Write a sequence for this structure.
């Protein structure tokens, strides 16, 4: 299927690896030119060159922390005219509810709620003035299915979800759609870290933890970044113009609900 976005330009945040890279790769495969961002310049440049070689699209890199105001300004200086925005940032550290203080919550809100909002406020008006745009926020399955040890993430991402619910309906008449993708467990570096943390706490090995987790996922495995990227590209496509303000789970069926 031709997704109808060849020649469009996208900003994909935190995209040198993991789910962000999966989204960047999938968009590039559809002929979308990219602005990609990460905190590590070495990984960022390697990803950019790999995408250029594989897909022949233009790739601009911005090494910056997109969760900070300075990082956002650096990214926006290169991406002011994009048609597609994919927001993404690493989640806050895990822990127990007794571990976190006000500063921890402020940091989580800055990274996983306020940063995506700032990027949307900066870029959506231009999309609206041109009559077309797509925004996809990478959030988490924890929005629907809270994860106890990720309480900071649960809170911040739920706040972003509420903001999107109202904002998406306001900008839809201008041809701009805003939706959220809610990843479950995917084979990324972050899952390697989380599996190791649980393994250390339970005095076992990460592979045992991964096997236990997979037993709880109906498809019996972690998701792949390719699968996630494909879903993102479709939501960014010309074909998805009637999908507004939705929270789409990519969790292998883990969340058990009729609706």
């Amino acid at each position: 299927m031709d997704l109808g976005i060849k020649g469009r330009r996208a900003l994909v945040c935190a995209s040198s690896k993991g789910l962000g890279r999966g989204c960047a790769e999938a968009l590039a495969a559809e002929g979308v030119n990219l602005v990609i961002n990460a905190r590590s310049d070495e990984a960022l440049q390697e990803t950019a060159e790999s995408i250029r070689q594989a897909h022949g699209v233009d790739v601009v890199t911005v090494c910056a922390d997109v969760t900070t105001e300075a990082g956002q300004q650096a990214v926006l200086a290169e991406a002011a005219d994009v048609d597609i925005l994919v927001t993404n940032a690493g989640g806050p550290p895990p822990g127990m509810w007794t571990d976190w203080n006000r500063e921890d919550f402020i940091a989580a809100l800055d990274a996983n709620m306020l940063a995506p909002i700032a990027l949307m406020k900066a870029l959506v008006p231009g999309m609206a003035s041109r009559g077309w745009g797509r925004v996809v926020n990478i959030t988490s399955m924890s929005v629907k299915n809270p994860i106890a040890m990720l309480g900071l993430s649960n809170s911040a991402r739920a706040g972003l979800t509420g903001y999107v619910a109202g904002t998406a309906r306001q900008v839809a008449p201008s041809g701009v759609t805003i939706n959220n993708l809610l990843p479950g467990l995917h084979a990324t570096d972050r899952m390697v870290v989380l599996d190791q943390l649980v393994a250390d706490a339970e005095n076992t090995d990460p592979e045992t933890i991964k096997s236990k987790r997979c037993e709880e996922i109906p498809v019996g495995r972690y998701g792949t970044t390719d699968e996630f990227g494909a879903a993102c590209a479709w939501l960014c496509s010309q074909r998805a113009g009637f999908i507004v303000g939705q929270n789409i789970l990519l969790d292998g069926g883990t969340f058990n609900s009729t609706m």
Q: What stands out?
A: The beta strands are 9-12, 33-38, 59-63, 84-87, 133-138, 176-183, 247-250. The longest strand covers residues 176-183. The chain has two domains: 9-184+225-250, 187-222.
